[in-house]
Amino acid sequence: MGDCKIGILGCAGRMGRMLIAATHDRAGCAVVGGTEPAGSPSFGKDLGELAGLGPIGILAAEDASALFTASDVVIDFTVPAASVAHADMAAESGTALLIGTTGLTGDQIAMIEAAGNKAPILIAANMSLGVNLLLEVVEQVAAALDEDYDIEVLEMHHRHKVDSPSGTALALGKAAAAGRGVDLEAVADKVRDGIVGARKRGDIGFATLRGGDVSGEHSVIFAADGERVILSHKASNREVFSRGAITAAQWLNGRPAGVYSMKDVLGLSK
Ligand SMILES: NC(=O)C1=CN([C@@H]2O[C@H](COP(=O)(O)OP(=O)(O)OC[C@H]3O[C@@H](n4cnc5c(N)ncnc54)[C@H](OP(=O)(O)O)[C@@H]3O)[C@@H](O)[C@H]2O)C=CC1
Ligand SMILES: O=C(O)C1=N[C@H](C(=O)O)C[C@H](O)C1
Protein backbone atom coordinates (compact mmCIF):
# COMPACT_ATOMS: atom_id res chain seq x y z
CA MET A 1 0.00 0.00 0.00
CA GLY A 2 1.27 3.53 -0.83
CA ASP A 3 1.53 6.45 1.55
CA CYS A 4 -1.65 7.83 3.14
CA LYS A 5 -2.21 11.05 1.16
CA ILE A 6 -3.06 13.86 3.55
CA GLY A 7 -4.59 17.24 2.64
CA ILE A 8 -4.52 20.08 5.16
CA LEU A 9 -7.24 22.73 5.25
CA GLY A 10 -6.13 25.95 6.94
CA CYS A 11 -2.52 24.95 6.26
CA ALA A 12 -1.04 28.29 7.39
CA GLY A 13 -2.81 28.34 10.76
CA ARG A 14 -1.11 27.49 14.07
CA MET A 15 -2.33 23.90 13.81
CA GLY A 16 -2.07 23.74 10.01
CA ARG A 17 1.68 24.36 10.13
CA MET A 18 2.12 21.77 12.89
CA LEU A 19 0.13 19.25 10.84
CA ILE A 20 2.35 19.72 7.77
CA ALA A 21 5.42 18.98 9.91
CA ALA A 22 3.77 16.04 11.71
CA THR A 23 2.69 14.46 8.40
CA HIS A 24 6.18 14.93 6.98
CA ASP A 25 7.69 13.23 10.07
CA ARG A 26 5.28 10.26 10.05
CA ALA A 27 6.27 7.12 8.15
CA GLY A 28 3.56 6.05 5.71
CA CYS A 29 2.07 9.54 5.27
CA ALA A 30 2.60 12.26 2.66
CA VAL A 31 1.27 15.83 2.39
CA VAL A 32 -0.45 16.26 -0.97
CA GLY A 33 -1.81 19.79 -0.59
CA GLY A 34 -3.18 22.51 1.63
CA THR A 35 -5.69 25.35 1.45
CA GLU A 36 -6.09 28.83 2.84
CA PRO A 37 -9.03 31.17 2.20
CA ALA A 38 -8.85 33.61 -0.72
CA GLY A 39 -6.99 36.76 0.28
CA SER A 40 -4.90 35.04 2.94
CA PRO A 41 -1.35 36.41 3.03
CA SER A 42 -0.12 32.79 3.00
CA PHE A 43 -1.94 31.94 -0.23
CA GLY A 44 0.61 30.61 -2.79
CA LYS A 45 3.34 29.97 -0.19
CA ASP A 46 5.21 26.65 -0.13
CA LEU A 47 3.78 24.31 2.55
CA GLY A 48 7.24 23.17 3.62
CA GLU A 49 8.28 26.79 4.15
CA LEU A 50 5.14 27.43 6.22
CA ALA A 51 6.07 24.49 8.47
CA GLY A 52 9.75 25.43 8.73
CA LEU A 53 10.88 22.35 6.78
CA GLY A 54 12.25 24.10 3.68
CA PRO A 55 10.45 23.97 0.31
CA ILE A 56 8.56 20.80 -0.67
CA GLY A 57 7.15 22.15 -3.96
CA ILE A 58 3.48 22.20 -2.86
CA LEU A 59 1.81 25.61 -2.64
CA ALA A 60 -1.08 26.75 -0.43
CA ALA A 61 -4.13 26.80 -2.71
CA GLU A 62 -7.73 27.96 -2.49
CA ASP A 63 -9.66 25.08 -4.05
CA ALA A 64 -10.77 22.78 -1.22
CA SER A 65 -12.79 20.51 -3.59
CA ALA A 66 -9.61 19.69 -5.52
CA LEU A 67 -7.89 18.82 -2.23
CA PHE A 68 -10.66 16.30 -1.40
CA THR A 69 -10.14 14.66 -4.79
CA ALA A 70 -6.37 14.45 -4.36
CA SER A 71 -6.33 13.15 -0.74
CA ASP A 72 -7.06 9.93 1.14
CA VAL A 73 -7.75 11.93 4.30
CA VAL A 74 -8.34 15.68 4.65
CA ILE A 75 -7.69 17.41 7.99
CA ASP A 76 -9.63 20.50 9.09
CA PHE A 77 -8.45 22.82 11.86
CA THR A 78 -10.10 26.02 10.57
CA VAL A 79 -13.27 27.85 11.66
CA PRO A 80 -16.78 26.39 12.23
CA ALA A 81 -18.49 27.67 9.03
CA ALA A 82 -15.62 26.32 6.91
CA SER A 83 -15.74 22.94 8.70
CA VAL A 84 -19.42 22.57 7.76
CA ALA A 85 -18.65 23.40 4.11
CA HIS A 86 -15.78 20.90 4.19
CA ALA A 87 -18.07 18.18 5.58
CA ASP A 88 -20.34 18.72 2.55
CA MET A 89 -17.31 18.27 0.28
CA ALA A 90 -16.42 15.04 2.11
CA ALA A 91 -19.97 13.77 1.56
CA GLU A 92 -19.77 14.66 -2.14
CA SER A 93 -16.37 13.05 -2.74
CA GLY A 94 -16.56 10.21 -0.18
CA THR A 95 -13.11 11.29 1.09
CA ALA A 96 -12.33 10.80 4.80
CA LEU A 97 -12.39 14.01 6.88
CA LEU A 98 -10.88 14.66 10.30
CA ILE A 99 -12.22 17.75 12.09
CA GLY A 100 -10.42 19.32 15.05
CA THR A 101 -12.12 22.72 14.82
CA THR A 102 -13.95 23.81 17.99
CA GLY A 103 -16.65 26.40 18.67
CA LEU A 104 -19.19 24.51 16.54
CA THR A 105 -22.87 25.06 17.38
CA GLY A 106 -25.23 22.11 17.93
CA ASP A 107 -26.72 22.73 14.46
CA GLN A 108 -23.28 22.75 12.84
CA ILE A 109 -22.36 19.47 14.57
CA ALA A 110 -25.63 17.94 13.33
CA MET A 111 -24.81 19.01 9.74
CA ILE A 112 -21.33 17.47 10.00
CA GLU A 113 -22.75 14.27 11.46
CA ALA A 114 -25.25 14.05 8.58
CA ALA A 115 -22.30 14.12 6.15
CA GLY A 116 -21.02 11.06 8.05
CA ASN A 117 -23.70 9.04 6.22
CA LYS A 118 -21.66 9.42 3.04
CA ALA A 119 -18.03 9.63 4.16
CA PRO A 120 -15.93 8.63 7.19
CA ILE A 121 -15.75 11.68 9.45
CA LEU A 122 -13.89 11.90 12.74
CA ILE A 123 -14.58 14.87 14.96
CA ALA A 124 -12.78 15.56 18.24
CA ALA A 125 -12.24 18.71 20.30
CA ASN A 126 -8.90 17.38 21.47
CA MET A 127 -6.57 14.95 19.69
CA SER A 128 -4.24 14.23 22.63
CA LEU A 129 -4.18 10.80 24.28
CA GLY A 130 -4.05 12.41 27.72
CA VAL A 131 -7.23 14.45 27.34
CA ASN A 132 -9.14 11.50 25.90
CA LEU A 133 -8.11 9.40 28.92
CA LEU A 134 -9.09 12.29 31.19
CA LEU A 135 -12.58 12.29 29.65
CA GLU A 136 -12.98 8.66 30.76
CA VAL A 137 -11.68 9.33 34.27
CA VAL A 138 -13.90 12.40 34.73
CA GLU A 139 -17.00 10.40 33.80
CA GLN A 140 -16.07 7.69 36.33
CA VAL A 141 -15.33 10.15 39.15
CA ALA A 142 -18.55 12.08 38.48
CA ALA A 143 -20.49 8.81 38.66
CA ALA A 144 -18.87 7.95 41.99
CA LEU A 145 -19.42 11.33 43.70
CA ASP A 146 -22.84 12.81 44.47
CA GLU A 147 -24.02 16.42 44.18
CA ASP A 148 -22.30 17.32 47.48
CA TYR A 149 -19.31 17.65 45.13
CA ASP A 150 -19.71 20.83 43.05
CA ILE A 151 -18.20 20.36 39.57
CA GLU A 152 -16.26 23.24 37.98
CA VAL A 153 -14.34 23.08 34.69
CA LEU A 154 -11.41 25.50 34.39
CA GLU A 155 -9.42 26.08 31.20
CA MET A 156 -6.61 28.36 30.02
CA HIS A 157 -5.46 29.01 26.45
CA HIS A 158 -3.28 31.44 24.49
CA ARG A 159 -4.41 35.00 23.81
CA HIS A 160 -5.42 34.25 20.18
CA LYS A 161 -8.14 31.68 20.95
CA VAL A 162 -11.57 32.87 19.77
CA ASP A 163 -14.04 30.34 21.21
CA SER A 164 -15.01 29.98 24.87
CA PRO A 165 -15.33 27.70 26.75
CA SER A 166 -12.85 25.57 24.80
CA GLY A 167 -14.15 22.52 22.96
CA THR A 168 -12.24 20.35 25.41
CA ALA A 169 -13.79 22.10 28.44
CA LEU A 170 -17.25 21.44 26.99
CA ALA A 171 -16.33 17.80 26.33
CA LEU A 172 -15.12 17.46 29.93
CA GLY A 173 -18.37 19.03 31.15
CA LYS A 174 -20.31 16.59 28.99
CA ALA A 175 -18.34 13.65 30.42
CA ALA A 176 -19.04 14.85 33.98
CA ALA A 177 -22.74 15.28 33.17
CA ALA A 178 -22.86 11.79 31.64
CA GLY A 179 -21.28 10.36 34.81
CA ARG A 180 -24.00 12.05 36.84
CA GLY A 181 -26.72 10.92 34.44
CA VAL A 182 -27.79 14.49 33.56
CA ASP A 183 -27.89 16.59 30.38
CA LEU A 184 -25.06 19.17 30.33
CA GLU A 185 -27.28 21.82 28.71
CA ALA A 186 -29.67 21.62 31.67
CA VAL A 187 -26.97 22.19 34.32
CA ALA A 188 -24.20 24.19 32.61
CA ASP A 189 -23.35 27.60 34.11
CA LYS A 190 -21.02 29.32 31.64
CA VAL A 191 -21.31 33.01 32.56
CA ARG A 192 -21.04 34.58 36.03
CA ASP A 193 -20.96 38.36 36.28
CA GLY A 194 -22.43 40.59 39.00
CA ILE A 195 -24.81 39.43 41.77
CA VAL A 196 -25.57 36.04 40.31
CA GLY A 197 -26.73 34.39 43.53
CA ALA A 198 -25.41 31.33 45.31
CA ARG A 199 -24.27 28.34 43.34
CA LYS A 200 -27.12 26.01 42.35
CA ARG A 201 -26.68 22.43 43.59
CA GLY A 202 -25.95 20.11 40.68
CA ASP A 203 -24.74 22.83 38.30
CA ILE A 204 -21.56 22.29 36.27
CA GLY A 205 -19.67 25.59 36.12
CA PHE A 206 -17.14 26.79 33.55
CA ALA A 207 -14.33 29.32 33.89
CA THR A 208 -12.13 30.57 31.07
CA LEU A 209 -8.67 32.14 31.22
CA ARG A 210 -6.87 33.60 28.18
CA GLY A 211 -3.29 34.80 27.94
CA GLY A 212 0.21 34.40 26.55
CA ASP A 213 1.13 31.31 24.57
CA VAL A 214 -0.59 28.62 26.68
CA SER A 215 -1.16 25.58 24.43
CA GLY A 216 -4.07 24.25 26.50
CA GLU A 217 -4.69 23.53 30.19
CA HIS A 218 -7.84 21.97 31.61
CA SER A 219 -8.92 21.04 35.13
CA VAL A 220 -12.11 19.48 36.43
CA ILE A 221 -12.62 20.31 40.10
CA PHE A 222 -14.97 18.33 42.36
CA ALA A 223 -15.35 20.62 45.40
CA ALA A 224 -17.10 19.43 48.57
CA ASP A 225 -17.10 20.58 52.20
CA GLY A 226 -13.67 19.55 53.47
CA GLU A 227 -12.02 18.32 50.28
CA ARG A 228 -11.47 18.85 46.56
CA VAL A 229 -10.63 16.31 43.87
CA ILE A 230 -8.80 18.02 40.97
CA LEU A 231 -8.17 16.23 37.67
CA SER A 232 -5.92 18.13 35.25
CA HIS A 233 -4.24 17.98 31.85
CA LYS A 234 -1.58 20.37 30.54
CA ALA A 235 -0.39 20.36 26.94
CA SER A 236 3.24 21.54 26.85
CA ASN A 237 2.99 22.34 23.13
CA ARG A 238 0.76 21.72 20.08
CA GLU A 239 2.66 18.59 19.03
CA VAL A 240 0.40 16.38 21.13
CA PHE A 241 -2.52 17.59 19.03
CA SER A 242 -0.81 17.31 15.62
CA ARG A 243 0.71 13.87 16.35
CA GLY A 244 -2.68 12.65 17.62
CA ALA A 245 -4.38 14.03 14.51
CA ILE A 246 -2.03 12.19 12.15
CA THR A 247 -2.51 8.95 14.12
CA ALA A 248 -6.26 9.47 13.80
CA ALA A 249 -5.95 10.23 10.07
CA GLN A 250 -4.05 6.97 9.49
CA TRP A 251 -6.71 5.12 11.48
CA LEU A 252 -9.54 6.77 9.48
CA ASN A 253 -8.02 5.97 6.08
CA GLY A 254 -10.12 3.26 4.37
CA ARG A 255 -12.89 3.15 7.05
CA PRO A 256 -16.52 2.99 5.92
CA ALA A 257 -18.77 6.07 6.09
CA GLY A 258 -19.70 6.98 9.65
CA VAL A 259 -19.03 9.40 12.48
CA TYR A 260 -16.02 8.50 14.61
CA SER A 261 -14.27 9.91 17.68
CA MET A 262 -10.82 9.70 19.27
CA LYS A 263 -12.26 7.04 21.57
CA ASP A 264 -12.57 4.77 18.51
CA VAL A 265 -8.96 5.49 17.52
CA LEU A 266 -7.65 4.82 21.02
CA GLY A 267 -9.79 1.74 21.62
CA LEU A 268 -11.68 3.47 24.47
CA SER A 269 -15.18 3.01 22.98
CA LYS A 270 -17.60 1.08 25.18
N1 LIG B 1 -8.93 19.22 18.31
C1 LIG B 1 -7.74 19.62 18.77
O1 LIG B 1 -6.93 18.83 19.28
C2 LIG B 1 -7.36 21.06 18.60
C3 LIG B 1 -8.26 21.94 18.09
N2 LIG B 1 -7.91 23.22 17.82
C4 LIG B 1 -8.90 24.03 17.14
O2 LIG B 1 -8.52 24.19 15.78
C5 LIG B 1 -9.01 25.42 15.28
C6 LIG B 1 -7.87 26.19 14.64
O3 LIG B 1 -6.96 26.57 15.64
P1 LIG B 1 -5.62 27.37 15.26
O4 LIG B 1 -4.81 26.60 14.28
O5 LIG B 1 -5.02 27.76 16.55
O6 LIG B 1 -6.26 28.66 14.56
P2 LIG B 1 -5.64 29.59 13.42
O7 LIG B 1 -6.51 30.81 13.35
O8 LIG B 1 -4.18 29.77 13.63
O9 LIG B 1 -5.81 28.71 12.08
C7 LIG B 1 -7.01 28.57 11.37
C8 LIG B 1 -6.63 28.62 9.91
O10 LIG B 1 -7.77 28.29 9.12
C9 LIG B 1 -7.79 29.20 8.02
N3 LIG B 1 -9.12 29.24 7.42
C10 LIG B 1 -10.21 29.97 7.78
N4 LIG B 1 -11.23 29.71 6.93
C11 LIG B 1 -10.77 28.80 6.02
C12 LIG B 1 -11.33 28.16 4.88
N5 LIG B 1 -12.58 28.40 4.48
N6 LIG B 1 -10.55 27.32 4.18
C13 LIG B 1 -9.28 27.06 4.53
N7 LIG B 1 -8.70 27.65 5.60
C14 LIG B 1 -9.44 28.49 6.34
C15 LIG B 1 -7.35 30.52 8.62
O11 LIG B 1 -6.93 31.42 7.60
P3 LIG B 1 -7.00 33.01 7.88
O12 LIG B 1 -6.25 33.23 9.15
O13 LIG B 1 -6.30 33.58 6.67
O14 LIG B 1 -8.45 33.35 7.98
C16 LIG B 1 -6.18 30.04 9.48
O15 LIG B 1 -4.99 29.92 8.73
C17 LIG B 1 -9.67 26.13 16.46
O16 LIG B 1 -11.04 25.89 16.43
C18 LIG B 1 -9.05 25.45 17.68
O17 LIG B 1 -9.83 25.49 18.82
C19 LIG B 1 -6.66 23.68 18.07
C20 LIG B 1 -5.72 22.86 18.62
C21 LIG B 1 -6.00 21.48 18.95
O1 LIG C 1 -7.44 26.66 20.30
C1 LIG C 1 -6.60 25.89 20.79
O2 LIG C 1 -5.39 26.19 20.82
C2 LIG C 1 -7.05 24.60 21.32
N1 LIG C 1 -8.30 24.28 21.15
C3 LIG C 1 -8.92 23.06 21.51
C4 LIG C 1 -10.13 23.29 22.38
O3 LIG C 1 -10.87 24.27 22.16
O4 LIG C 1 -10.38 22.49 23.28
C5 LIG C 1 -7.97 22.00 21.99
C6 LIG C 1 -6.71 22.50 22.64
O5 LIG C 1 -6.94 22.74 23.99
C7 LIG C 1 -6.08 23.69 21.95
Descriptive labels:
270 residues; alpha/beta; six-stranded parallel beta sheet; binds NADPH dihydro-nicotinamide-adenine-dinucleotide phosphate; 2 domains; 11 strands
Structural account:
Keywords: Amino-acid biosynthesis, Cytoplasm, Diaminopimelate biosynthesis, Lysine biosynthesis, NAD, NADP, Oxidoreductase. Pfam families: DapB_C, DapB_N. With 270 residues, the chain is an alpha/beta fold. 37% of the residues lie in helices and 23% in strands. The protein contains ten helices and eleven strands. A six-stranded parallel β-sheet has the order 2-1-3-4-5-11, with helices on both faces. A hairpin with a 2-residue loop joins strand 9 and strand 10 (227-234). Helix 1 crosses helix 9, helix 4 (80-93) runs parallel beside helix 5 (106-115) and helix 6 (129-144) packs parallel to helix 7. It is elongated, with a radius of gyration of 19 Å. The ligand O=C(O)C1=N[C@H](C(=O)O)C[C@H](O)C1 binds at residues 102, 125-126, 157, 161, 166-168, 216.
